[in-house]
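Input (structure):
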């Protein structure tokens, strides 16, 4: 919910009995925000209760708590609301990453198309970003919001950009587009060369030709999960001449749901690559599935 909607939200919370018809109309207009307002107001009520306790007041008959407990409580209350805030440097609202000078994005409840569509569990992956990077708007067609939870085409979860250093987005691809195996591991989709032939067009934005696009490939494993990493030189590609992809496979929330290939795609033009190739490489390689995201369905 944007800050510009807060006055309308406050107006919709309570109106005097002598409210004018115009005010009552404004109240009705704000009702589409009711779901977000209930969630946010619940978190703020919790914050206010904790603040009162820290000052020595009694709330609901309970005794005061320490100032530290208030701070921790505020952090927990706000963390459930954190998503990608469009146009705001991530260093202003995301928690710090274990990596120095990086801030960690973890998709919270209802914060991405796949989570809203119950295709992916909340908090399934993490991405570490420099503090001055910002989330940017993803077009409706690219988000897949209109076809969830049964999208047949790839879609973009979230997208971030650095100032003059490149961009990165998280994408998902239905596994049936890549293999006939019902619940595949990444190895079931293919070896690294086979997989890049299948996902390459999604990485470059139009096509992939291994002969014309020199590609450096690495394979890594973490917590039982396999990742293929590709650094591609792609002159003339829609996404730019330098593209990096880190791909793995994620199960659905239940054993009836599809599996998906999930990947971060980072791209840069020549000037961005010359200025900050190390930065954009570090962003792409920070992508990781969490224990929640990698867990088999039903666990």
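Output (sequence):
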């Amino acid at each position: 919910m944007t800050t510009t909607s807060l006055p309308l939200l406050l107006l919709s919370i309570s109106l005097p009995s002598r409210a004018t018809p115009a005010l009552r109309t404004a109240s009705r207009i704000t009702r589409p925000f009711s779901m977000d307002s209930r969630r946010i107001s619940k978190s703020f009520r919790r914050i206010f209760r904790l603040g009162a306790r820290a000052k020595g007041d009694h709330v609901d008959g309970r005794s005061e708590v320490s100032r530290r407990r208030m701070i921790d409580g505020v952090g927990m209350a706000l963390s459930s609301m954190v998503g990608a805030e469009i146009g705001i440097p991530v260093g202003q609202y995301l928690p710090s990453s274990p990596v120095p000078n990086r801030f960690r994005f973890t998709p919270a409840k209802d914060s991405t198309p796949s989570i809203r569509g119950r295709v992916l569990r909340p908090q399934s992956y993490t991405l570490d970003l420099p503090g001055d990077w910002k989330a940017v708007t993803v077009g409706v067609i690219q988000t897949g919001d209109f076809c969830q939870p049964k999208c047949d085409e790839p879609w973009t979860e979230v997208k971030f950009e650095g100032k003059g250093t490149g961009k990165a987005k998280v994408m998902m691809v239905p596994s049936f587009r890549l293999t006939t195996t019902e619940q595949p591991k990444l190895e079931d989709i293919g070896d690294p060369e086979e997989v890049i032939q299948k996902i390459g067009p999604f990485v470059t934005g139009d096509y992939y030709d291994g002969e014309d696009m020199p590609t450096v490939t690495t394979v890594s494993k973490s917590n039982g999960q396999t990742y293929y990493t590709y650094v591609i030189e792609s002159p003339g590609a829609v996404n730019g001449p330098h593209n990096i992809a880190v791909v793995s496979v994620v199960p659905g929330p239940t054993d009836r749901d599809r599996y998906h290939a999930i990947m971060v795609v980072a791209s840069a033009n020549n000037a961005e690559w010359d200025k900050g190739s190390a930065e954009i490489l570090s962003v792409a390689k920070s992508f990781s599935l969490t224990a929640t995201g990698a867990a088999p369905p039903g666990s």
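Notes: Residues 120 and 135 are 20 Å apart (CA to CA). The chain has ten helices and ten strands.
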